[in-house]
């Protein structure tokens, strides 16, 4: 599996470090890597736990990424956009020469989970519709580049309702409503792009996973899934936990409950239990062979 995305996805893989191998399917750094979940994230869980067969993963995702930094600026200029992940890392190192890692088209999955920062950084702009039109043209073009390099199996994740995050809620009801509307539009465009990719290239298999739906479901009812049932707090976070803790299960009295019983680690990122459930649900989608996880809330 090759993976592209942002902080919800990154494990801080370094292309100059150890590559995935039978002894170490994630390559580098040591499991679970440097994630935003205070533990393993969905890529970790999918690679090592919720898979029917052995799998190796090259995770090129980078925290803070947008599709293209020139269109929607990330929080720092050093952040690698999905465009840079593909053009500066994947294509020269893994596609064109394959000098780092050998793979085959028929048994390799290309996963892309992006949009949280595109939406979050641009939904309030007066020319947002123009910006997003350019973003979608770029995104579709990048997927074509992957196809031309040999990619035939694609997985896309929809943007979750981060309008319900402590970060957006602190900005007020107006911001929450506008971001929610923008997320719905983003996911509708993603659905269209995925369908068009499969229609244009009949030799592809395109999976679309509705992360938006299950994310919202857990926020509403944590026990909708066994892995997330321990969540006691789904609305706020404890500042003593927000930068990570020594253990996945650390308990500090001032926080009331252990860190893994908070849905939100900080103002934007969920803790590892959600990622575990997400990986299991993605595995079920891939296993049953149905390419669309439905129903979508905008259908």
Automatic annotation (TrEMBL):
Tell me which SUPFAM superfamilies the record gives: SGNH hydrolase (SSF52266)
Gene Ontology molecular function: hydrolase activity, acting on ester bonds
What InterPro entries would the database entry show?
Answer: GDSL (IPR001087), GDSL_Est/Lipase (IPR051058), SGNH_hydro_sf (IPR036514)
User: Per its UniProt entry, which superkingdom is the organism in?
Assistant: Eukaryota
Matching Pfam families, A to Z?
Answer: Lipase_GDSL
Swiss-Prot/TrEMBL keywords:
Hydrolase
Instruction: Please tell me whether the keyword Protein biosynthesis is annotated for this protein.
Output: no
- Note whether Hydrolase occurs among the keywords: yes
Name-wise, this protein is: Carbohydrate esterase family 16 protein
């Amino acid at each position: 599996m090759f993976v592209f995305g942002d902080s919800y996805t990154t494990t801080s893989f370094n292309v100059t470090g150890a590559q995935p191998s039978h002894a170490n399917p994630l390559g580098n750094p040591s499991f679970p890597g440097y994630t935003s979940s205070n533990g393993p994230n969905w890529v970790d869980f999918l690679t090592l736990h919720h898979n029917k067969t052995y799998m190796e993963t090259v995770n090129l995702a980078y925290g803070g990424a947008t599709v293209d930094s020139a269109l929607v600026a990330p929080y720092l200029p050093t952040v690698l956009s999905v465009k840079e992940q593909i053009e500066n890392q994947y294509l020269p190192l893994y596609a064109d020469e394959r000098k780092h890692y050998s793979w085959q088209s028929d048994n390799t999955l290309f996963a892309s989970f992006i949009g949280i920062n595109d939406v979050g950084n641009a939904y309030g702009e007066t020319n947002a519709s123009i910006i997003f039109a350019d973003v979608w043209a770029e995104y579709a073009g990048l997927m074509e580049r992957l196809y031309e390099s040999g990619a035939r199996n694609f997985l896309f994740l929809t943007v979750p309702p981060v309008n319900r995050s402590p970060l957006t809620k602190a900005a007020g009801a107006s911001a929450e409503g506008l971001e929610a509307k923008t997320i719905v539009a983003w996911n509708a465009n993603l659905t269209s792009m995925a369908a068009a990719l499969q229609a244009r290239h009949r030799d592809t298999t395109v999976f679309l996973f509705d992360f938006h739906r299950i994310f919202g479901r857990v926020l509403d009812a944590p026990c909708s899934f066994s892995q997330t049932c321990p969540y006691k707090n789904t609305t706020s976070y404890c500042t003593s936990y927000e930068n990570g803790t020594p253990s996945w299960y650390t308990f500090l009295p001032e926080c009331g409950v252990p860190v893994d019983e908070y849905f939100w680690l900080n103002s934007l990122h969920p803790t590892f239990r959600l990622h575990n459930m997400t990986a299991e649900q993605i595995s079920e989608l891939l296993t049953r062979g149905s390419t669309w996880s439905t129903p979508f809330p905008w259908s």
